Amino acid sequence: MSAAVRWLLPLAVVLELVAMCASNKPLSAAAGLLFLCCFLMAGSRLQAYSRALLLVSLVVTGWLSIRGQLSMSQLIKASADAAFYAAFLGSLGMMQCLVRRFEVLRRIHDVLLGGRAVWLYPKYALVSCGIASVLSFGMMNLLCGSLSETLRDRGITGPSRLQWLRCVLISALRGFALVPLVAPTSVAVAILTRELPELSWSMLLPFGAAAAVLLIGVGWLLEQRRFRQVSSERVTLDQWPAGTLKLLLLVLAVFSVMAVLVALTSLKVSAAAMLAVPVITLLYITWEDRSLGTVLEESASQVSAMVNEMAIFAGSAILGVALSSMIPRDALSGLAGSTGGVLMLATIGMLMLPLLSAIGIIPITVLSIQAGLLPELVAGGMDPLLISVALVIGFSLAMMLSPFGPSVMLLSRFGQVSRWVVAFRWNGVFVLIAVPLLLALLAIEAVLLPAFR
């Protein structure tokens, strides 16, 4: 990574955070242009998928602009959205700077494998979700990387190694996939609440939590037998690793700052997380290292290490604005006026995400396009809650089935297992069982929704 890109990426993140606090869309669009310049300067250093998605988004946007199908306001929105989603990932990824400073995170698998074997799957899923709500993709790096080291240090190979990978990493992936359903820091929640200001995370939470409980129950039934074998090979800890309490206090500080920002300002929870995570992280590592230069160096390195994921998020945002502009404004308005029509839209929207993700279109791209259609439907009188719930459920399923998604690719790389095996063989049966149950849950929520309004 060139020195220019290494320092310009953090600058673009800071510029977007300033624009977000000031509600200044032109400044946010400028941040988006700076991000695009960084991605173009990175060039061949980007992975093939990141480059392809970014190129497609720019070509499609340029072609539509030349044909007059995209107005200047839409181009500004596309650039501003690209900045927001790239900065969302960059700012939350700063929490990864804390990982190497805490022994409890390096020994997390020994911690999680404690206790009765029957509870290991829900424990892994819930803890993975909790960590991912703060670390985002850093959670996959943490759990996958630490498991690889654990297996190598203990000499676990062959069928036992595959069993560990199958149990532990698939539970981590499914826990990560719960984040859109329950966490305010999810990019899916950020996209939907950005497009629909009248929507909030607290409105989505009861319905998302019900779906999360259902998904944990299905996974529990499928995986508990495998966890018994893994449990027999674990190392028992005599006490909690050093730094556990300090880490819990830091996480509590992050969520406390988020709560204060939401209470005292007009910021949404997602935006508050984008400010709280880097601020608390920078304060802590500055206090620990006592060197501003070292802190700046580490922060720049951490943000620039996520350039591929940030390029994917930015390209998806641009493509979402461009493609949603091609769909006629009244194409779906006829379905938005009745409960049955809204349920049909919600069902289609939910199923589109995992189906398109399975053929290689990553979930954030699909959700960006879908979210771009919602404001027009809401303007026509549609209640956005049910379809928004359906989209976060679909996003959760898509995270498990997308062979090109960042989470599956990380798991594949660390576990040295084909991403097709992870997405389809390990998760296929789980999703086939879960989808009918989630559709039934969605229908029940459609009936109960008036009671929540």
From TrEMBL:
The keyword Ligase does not apply. The chain crosses the membrane at residues 29-46, 52-70, 82-102, 122-143, 164-183, 203-222, 243-263, 269-287, 307-327, 347-373, 385-404, 424-449. It comes from the Bacteria. Keywords: Membrane, Transmembrane, Transmembrane helix. Coiled coil: none annotated. This is Citrate transporter-like domain-containing protein. It comes from Marinobacter salinus.
